[in-house]
Amino acid sequence: MKLDHIGIAVHSIEDALGTYQHRLGFSLVEIVAIDEQKVRVAILPAGDSRIELLEPTAPSSPIQKFLEKRGEGVHHLCFQVKDIQSKVKELQSASLQLVSMPSDTGLEGRRIAFLHPKSTHGVLIELVESELEA
Q1: pTM exceeding 0.70
Q2: Domain containing 51 — which CATH number?
């Protein structure tokens, strides 16, 4: 699996860009809303991967709940897989617990699924279906 992105929960994309774009020198590609996930996402390329700054758009957003519980910081790691359905079945048979099924849609309309942090040593793992997987 290849790293697709690192998701970072922030209270305000605009405030976070002051650090990531203006101080650290990352370029902003775009900011998009993903209504299904109740989040705004700022996309910043980082080599062969990217950083996604995640800002909640509703009190019921999973990102809002994360911020209330843990504050700003790394929310998840995302890895590319060619066939998300097969990968999910493989991981379930290896006793990894899912948070969501591959019917969810993420950025760019790609199919996504999340693995529960209890199954992955405290790290929320996102899988994203991509033809680019290495």
Answers
A1: yes
A2: 3.10.180.10
